[in-house]
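Please decode residue identities from the backbone states below.
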């Protein structure tokens, strides 16, 4: 009996083999692709006839073929000249093909190589499973037709190519996403700087004697103030949706009365609704609704819902905001309008990113199509849910936000916060490279009675900030040359606890806040910030000549 018969080798009929192409005439309908080009196959088999027949077929198909008759030789060849595919017999004289496969897959230099197991004897399903679990891509049982071998090699090469392209595309997309986020952060900073200057100027007009402005000028000032606020919200939403979809934001949660949050949102929405001729009604809970939440983010939720209601309601429409405590220890807040309503299919996708009811209508009414996406994500991060209902087009819409209430034990005792304004007390150094924003804020601080010096960049600030000279240093981060983080670190080394450091910047991502704290800032405010907030912060400051305490300020 021949050696081939002892090994169970059954002669196969040789055919003229050629490179297998996938052309337009194939069932897959793909463009022609020659998958054998420059491909190397390592053929491992200790039976001479099988080795010869397989190698001959592969070379006829256009592959470069390496040969090995033992597992050790195969491993060495794979390291010396990594192949694209290994056609590996499971029965070898020195070790099993399963062990060879496992060792190839464990080595980072060869783990991406495709492996085809072959066997000239009957192999049970259990053995095939063992081979596949060891890392093999496919299993062929001899006798097989040479064209079957070529087609199988071609198939695994094609899959490997697709995998490599997918990984390369994923890497490119990840890099593009990183660059996009860097661009958005820079864009926000560049947008917030001019917005800050305009906002300060408008707020100063509002704080001066109103009798000095004609009725028309006062109305124009109010228009500018509302539109600056709208632009600020658009910038915040654009950045927030990027952070939320990447999970790059963190909630600053604490006990708060949801009624207070709703009152702030209603106060912000009321002027816009009045301008659009809408009627705003409220029916809030008579008792406190204590939740564990981020005040700024929850205000963002209800501000977006109110803005959505006003945007899609006709002049003279009614917007009603209600809140009540349910029996399931949850609070439900509803925002109902008499606007254009929603079709059933729109209700199912309204919270999707960039979803618009109608392209032309959405563009005419403004917005980025991301506000409701932010609402859903922020509510869910608070352990709640948001729902929408409409009886159809022209029937208005009802949005309901449900949030869990704090237990009685977790609710804080009622306290009244009193902040006495301090005037004429602080020596302030204001550092900002935007001259309009710098001069506007300087004028406002001086109106409050503070002594203010200004610097337009880091080196000038460091030259001016000698120990004991200033009580408060308000410092922009996006400075030319020496950035605000570096300036803060240098100042902390010089003035130690002599001054409070406040970051006033267009950079507002969580990682920016973390960096500012590490650099030595006591507080991080994001432009454009309300002047009343700056006044509240200054009123909170403790005496100098001691380590500044970390202040809790509303996130802008």
């Amino acid at each position: 009996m021949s050696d081939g018969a002892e090994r169970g080798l059954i002669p196969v009929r040789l055919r003229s083999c050629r490179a297998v192409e996938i052309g337009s005439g194939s069932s897959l309908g793909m463009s022609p692709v020659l998958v054998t080009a420059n491909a190397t196959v390592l053929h491992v088999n200790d039976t001479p006839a099988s080795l010869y027949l397989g190698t001959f077929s592969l070379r006829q198909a256009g592959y470069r073929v390496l040969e090995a008759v033992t597992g050790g030789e195969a491993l060495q060849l794979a390291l010396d000249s990594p192949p694209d595919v290994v056609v590996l017999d499971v029965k070898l004289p020195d070790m099993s093909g399963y062990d060879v496969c496992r060792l190839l897959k464990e080595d980072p230099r060869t783990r991406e190589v495709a492996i085809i197991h072959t066997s000239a004897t009957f192999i049970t399903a259990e053995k095939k499973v063992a081979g596949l679990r060891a890392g093999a891509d496919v299993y062929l049982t001899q006798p097989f037709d040479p064209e079957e071998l070529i087609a199988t090699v071609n198939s695994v090469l094609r899959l490997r190519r697709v995998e490599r392209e997918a990984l390369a595309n994923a890497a490119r997309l990840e890099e593009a996403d990183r660059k996009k986020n860097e661009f958005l952060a820079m864009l926000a900073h560049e947008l917030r700087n001019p917005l800050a200057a305009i906002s300060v100027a408008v707020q100063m007009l509002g704080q001066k004697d109103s009798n000095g402005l004609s009725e028309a000028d006062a109305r124009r000032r109010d228009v500018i103030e509302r539109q600056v606020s709208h632009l600020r919200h658009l910038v915040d939403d654009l950045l927030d949706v990027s952070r939320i979809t990447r999970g790059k934001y963190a909630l600053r949660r604490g006990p708060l009365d949801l009624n207070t949050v709703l009152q702030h949102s209603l106060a912000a929405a009321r002027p816009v609704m009045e301008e659009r001729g809408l009627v705003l009604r409220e029916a809030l809970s008579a008792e406190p609704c204590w939740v564990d939440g981020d005040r700024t983010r929850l205000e963002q939720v209800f501000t977006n819902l109110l803005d959505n209601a006003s945007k899609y309601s006709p002049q003279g429409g009614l917007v009603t905001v209600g809140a009540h405590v349910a029996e399931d220890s949850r609070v439900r807040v509803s925002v109902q309008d008499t606007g254009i309503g929603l079709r059933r299919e729109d209700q199912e996708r309204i919270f999707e990113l960039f979803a618009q009811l109608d392209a032309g209508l959405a563009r005419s009414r403004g917005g980025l199509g991301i506000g409701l996406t932010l609402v859903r994500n922020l509510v869910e991060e608070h352990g709640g849910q948001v729902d929408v209902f409409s009886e159809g087009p022209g029937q208005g819409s009802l949005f309901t936000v449900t949030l869990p209430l704090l237990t009685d034990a977790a609710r804080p005792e009622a306290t009244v916060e009193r902040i006495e304004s301090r005037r004429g007390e602080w020596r302030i150094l204001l550092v900002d490279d935007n001259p309009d924003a710098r001069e506007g804020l300087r004028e406002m601080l001086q109106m409050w009675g503070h002594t203010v010096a200004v610097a337009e960049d880091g080196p000038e600030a460091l030259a001016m900030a000698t120990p004991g000279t200033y009580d408060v240093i308000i410092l922009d981060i996006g400075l030319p040359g020496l950035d605000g983080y570096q300036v803060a670190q240098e100042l902390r080394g010089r003035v130690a606890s002599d001054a409070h450091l406040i970051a006033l910047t267009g950079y507002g991502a969580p990682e920016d806040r973390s960096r500012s704290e590490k650099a030595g800032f006591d507080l991080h405010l994001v432009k454009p910030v309300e002047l009343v907030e700056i006044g509240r912060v200054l009123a909170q400051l403790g005496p100098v000549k001691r380590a500044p305490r970390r202040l809790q300020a509303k996130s802008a």
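Observation: The radius of gyration is 35 Å.
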